[in-house]
Design brief:
Blueprint: H1 2-16, H2 23-30, H3 35-52, H4 56-64
Length: about 70
């Protein structure tokens, strides 16, 4: 997860042209969610799919705790 977070931050800096500014300041300036917020939202969405459907693949990953 650390490498994925780092890649997310590096891509934002490169795409929007920021150089040596703190990631927090960049995210606030651009009004983008942090990596942790994205991860939490997707986990929540995935869990809600598990509750609302009968999908064996989703159930498998939810039970793994991903």
């Amino acid at each position: 997860m650390k490498k994925l977070r780092s890649c997310y931050h590096r891509c934002i800096k490169t795409f929007f042209g920021y150089d040596r500014q703190s990631v927090t300041a960049i995210l606030l300036d651009l009004q983008l969610p942090s990596f942790e917020t994205l991860l939490y939202n997707y986990k929540y969405s995935f869990y809600m799919q598990f509750l609302c459907s009968d999908n064996a693949v989703v159930e498998y990953f939810v039970r793994l705790g991903l």
